[in-house]
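Lab notebook, bench 4. Still working through the backlog of constructs that have no structural model yet. Next entry is a single chain of 233 residues. Request: give me the structure tokens for it.
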Amino acid sequence: MSTPEPQIPELPSSLSLIQKLGAVALISGLLVALVYEYTKPMIADNQRVALEGALFKVLPTSASSRLTFRLENSQLSPVPDDTPNDGNLVYAGYDKDHKLVGIALTAAAQGYQDMVKILYAYDPYHSCIKDFVVLKSTETPGFGDKIATDESFLKNFECLDARVNEEQSALAQAIRTVRHGTKKNPWEIDAIAGATITSNAVGRMLDKSGQLFHPAIAQNLNLLENAQRATQP
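Model written out:
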């Protein structure tokens, strides 16, 4: 007596597979879009809270009020304080006598793993960068994150030279990161040994931001100085 041949299930057609995969992709994409839209306001609110905390840290303690300006075509114009920062905002701090006491700016650059974003303090009267706070970083713990904790690295920002040239068109000297232990000029950043990629990212982002913002701040300094007083009744 012969053994019956095993039944081989019929393979689905290519069209059927494409339809099923397409349906799965469509549903997945829809779910991602829904989650993004649902969490978008919460993410924006968290970013706003983080920015407010960072502004509190980098602006001088004498700053009792703040105004926000947008940079466009080398001109500064006031905007509401809750305006989302697309990298073009200037935060000016004033004391109780309406005197300009400091400016805060954002900067970003590619680090070892992802974009590193900071908020830094700029003193327009001494033309130097004095402090910064990391807003976003996913650098390797123990290495890249040293930019926020390494004391010798942070000394670079006690007064990092960021003056503009006589034409007020660019920085007088490009800010750059140099190999650890080789800093010779006040506009150079002494890198962290073992974290040179992130150190270089800080130098690149500060130079890019300085080339964009610092000349415009010099050109619009009178506007910044008088803006707070102009808002008073």
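Notes after review: The mean pLDDT is 89. DSSP finds four helices and nine strands in the chain. Flag for follow-up if needed.
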